[in-house]
Protein 1
Amino acid sequence: MSEKFDVVVIGGGPAGYPAAIRAAQNKLSVACIDAWQNTDGSYAFGGTCLNAGCIPSKALLESSELYHRAQHELAVHGIRCADVQLDLTTMQKRRASVVKAMTGGILALFKSAGVTGIVGRGRLLGANQVEVTAADGTVRILEAKDVILASGSVPVHLESVPHDGKFIVDSWNALEFGKVPRRLGVIGAGVIGLELGSVWRRLGSEVVMLEALEQFLPMTDQAVAREAQRHFKKLGLDIRLGARVQKAVVEEGVVNLTYTDAIGEQKLQVDQLVVAVGRRPYTQGLLAEGTGVELDQRGFIAVDEHCRTAVPHIWAVGDVVRGPMLAHKGKEEGVMVADLIGGRYAEVNYRVIPSVIYTAPEIAWVGQTEEQVKASGVAYKVGSFPFAASGRARAMEAGVGFAKIVAARESDEILGVHIIGPMAGELIAEAVLAMEYAASTEDLQRTIHAHPTLSEALHEAALAADKRAIDSINR
Ligand code: FAD
Ligand code: NAD
């Protein structure tokens, strides 16, 4: 006999679980199915983000940054740390406990909202029927008026670099290392490569990053990319651009890599190698024959701007559909779909999605880069403010980087904001809100910012766009 729900969500990551909660808030009966199994054998909601992505990486970034500061950055404050020692076991236990608290929190949220959480593998059978297979092989059938597919993504593996989970690993394995690798190789100098490369570099690894592209961080404003490259070099990240890996072989407990660059064939030996060359949508076993749900050329579930698939009442959200693979993008899509199902108005403003790279200095942006605005042909102006001129940043001994605003010359509307510097990921929220309300630089100029705060950097950047900055030289 089948069980009946208004909404069944397949996938309990940051796209699926908020969809389930919002659907329940909309007074719908909801089940959320998830199959995530951790390396200790336990099952947990939260998907990649909570179990093997955003949260554990940020826990380790925080711990490793504190270790790095204690070693290198406290002396200037007059604090001497004679014998700073790394206890990686405790650091990793803390990372695991942060994850456990967060994933356990989802169960509490489900209970309070009235969502039925089901551990198992879901498969859309068509005609709004979902089959769930539990770990012990038990099968049950759920019927739903609406089904939301939120099956997420998995790392891309390279055929020439065979993953073995020990020497050649993906980002998940690299978050759980029990020993600091002496020499760490990273393929891909994207977001994961830079975050994980920073963690292990700060903890003592020699890190070499091999990036296929000639350009560093092509998705960011290039002034930010140049500044970032300078700081990462200072940290000791050896980032080699235009490096194409031919093969990697594990021999006698080390990884021997062959790659080519502008000079020719190169060799590199490392103790462990992280492959961080992107992620791909995950739909394995998700769709039975003939559901009518279509995949696009790159394997994403094809949806419209409201996350509707080609089949009525079947929706898809998060990493498994087009757009940036970001937890907050998935969350907003999940909430939008749950509201649409609940008969409410909802949309996602895809033009205003912030991105953050949690390195030191942190990098954050929203909207268009200067290069994109220039290419669009719109007349524009730029205002920048260096954190070196920020009293708060100086007091924090963090006066590096800048905030930059790109705005339309005629209308004054803010088109993009780019920050590299202390707490950039927090500061960007003001820019996101401003752009959500189609603010002008004048709106930011007239907004009072507390002194001394890092947020004054955005205020001054807005003023600088009209050459009216007070605390820095107008150029
Ligand atoms: P997922 O989180 O992948 O969740 C999908 C869930 O569905 C999984 O639990 C999976 O097991 C389950 N599932 C799949 N198929 C089935 C099925 N058939 N039946 C049942 N369950 C199924 N993003 C950010 O915004 N900020 C960050 O700081 C950040 N850091 C990251 C760091 C790392 C190392 C990585 C790898 C990613 C990071 N991301 C970050 C990206 C972020 O994790 C993803 O964008 C986000 O998790 C996508 O959410 P999702 O719900 O679409 O998919
Ligand atoms: P990415 O796309 O950010 O970076 C992958 C990099 O690998 C690119 O620079 C690419 O040019 C390079 N590359 C691809 N193939 C290569 C090859 N054969 N040899 C060498 N280099 C190669 O992808 P990622 O870092 O794997 O992250 C995956 C997704 O997870 C991203 O979409 C990202 O948005 C998300 N994520 C977000 C955060 C965050 O928000 N802070 C953190 C981690 C991951």
Protein 2
Amino acid sequence: MKITEVRTIVTCPNRNYVLVKILTDSGVYGVGDATLNGRELSVAAALKEHIGPLLIGRDPDNVEHIWQDLFRGAYWRGGPVLMTALAGVDMALWDIKGKAANRPVYSLLGGKNREGARAYTHAGGRDFKETEDNIREHMEAGFTVIRAQVAIPGSGGTYGIGGGKEAALATWTNTPGANARPHVEVFEPGPYLRTIPALFEHLRANLGDEIDIFHDVHERLTPVQAARLAKELEPFHLFFLEDALRPEHKESFRLVRQASTTPLAMGELFTNRWECLPLIAEQLIDYIRCDLSHVGGITEARKIAILAETYHVQTAWHGPGDISPVAHAANVHLDLAVPNFGVQEMVRFPDVVREVIPGGPELRNGFLYVSDKPGLGTDVNEDLARKHEYKPAYLPIARRADGSVHDW
Ligand code: CS2
Ligand code: MG
């Protein structure tokens, strides 16, 4: 089999997605996800101008060889743009491999360790009661793990709230279009550090101990602040505390780890296994939560999972609305296969996304399932995709009250 064409498809059914379609001379094709939220066209250009042409004439079965060629062979390596482009190619190649072998991808990864992937979704609210009510709705829908965020007084809208139900939808946080500008939020550690322990005290008092709940810090704290938060949250038994620190400062996790037994998760901003390695090998985290679309795809995430398994670290792959159902399917194929699966983040995609990019995982009673179709089971409807043109859009920006830049 030979690769004959590499198509880069940029579409905006509800938000922007970048898909890679790799076609072969045998008629089999594969589809991968190369979406990088807010930087979509830079990945599309890397694919169109630099990476796609290198694949023509190659045998798509040699996934690892192509991966190594694109990662190391090009001298310039790593970073979110190139690793997302590589991830798109990698997923499309695994899709082809599965279709050619007439097996679903999980089967090629070692087969099923479990039937479904335990999933979590997002709850948010303008106050504690609204977050609590939103959690109750998710529990009624079958979820047993739920992320809880709440508006912080004085922040002008805080990451992850979106006012109740919207928190669990794959929607925009700002209005896309030619004049789009990032939404600016204020982040001050004082109100934040007072609010979050109080939120979890409220949730445990009203929801009991059984439901697994947790919080996403979104890399906003200093090491000592994160240590304080982890310690103060300890009585409320979080499932994990997500992304407490900036991705640059792996060594700072030692401080947080020493301060408490609150389980820690990290990784959605990492782009390769070497970034994960110190946290895994020193057992400074409990969950590694890279994004398959940003670490170079299934090939690299599988290696990260194996490293993690060696050190009692479980997986919790990033599954937000800004990656497409193709990447969500790749997540679940890997979730089913690895022994050290922990939990899978998910969002509900609106119908329009499911029409343009069909075949994503299905949720039943709090678990995600993929189809037994050969490959990833997902596809892109190119005619429909063309009708939904790219719209510029940005992630929000967090600033301190004095106007200086803070980590989002
Ligand atoms: C979040 C993401 O899902 C998560 O845990 O941290 O929503 C994140 O903000 C976006 O993926 C950024 O693109
Ligand atoms: Mg997160």
Protein 3
Amino acid sequence: MDLKSLIRDIPDFPKPGIVFRDITTLLRDPQGLRYTIDFLAEKCIDAELKADYIVGIESRGFIFGTPLAYKLGLGFIPVRKPRKLPAPVYSVEYELEYGTDCLEIHQDALHPNSRVLIVDDLIATGGTASATAKLIEKIGCELVGFGFIIELRDLEGRKNLPDVPIISLVEY
Ligand code: AMP
């Protein structure tokens, strides 16, 4: 299936010069949605990642990470923006183009010997995924890979990630 044909390009969003890859058009397509999750699951199985948990990044990482976890028979753990999670958290700050941002995970979400696959909709510079990897390291878990629907190759986000398998379904 041609997933690119279901992803909508929105030029100059959220600011001039950025082409926003809009996955809402993919999500509303029944065959497209099913194919996306099945294809991602298949690639994870082929890569023999043997994850115990999917860690999904707010908020589009939740949309793809949860059905992937269901399909693979794994648990799902959310990484959220600050002050959203109710129990004690670990936090990580990371650099944005202008300023910094922060992500959080529940301190008791993972046992230190768990194997974790991080999922988000898209990798651009890799800053968000790399910050999430730091949270996993902080807990002492084993990071076994990353899964993305979309990869923006020109931004070379892979170079900013730890040396584990990186799965993506569509490249721009
Ligand atoms: P980065 O940290 O630079 O890898 O950016 C990844 C995060 O920003 C993901 O959570 C994406 O949802 C979002 N993002 C970055 N660039 C785009 C884009 N061109 N279109 C849609 N989402 C984007």
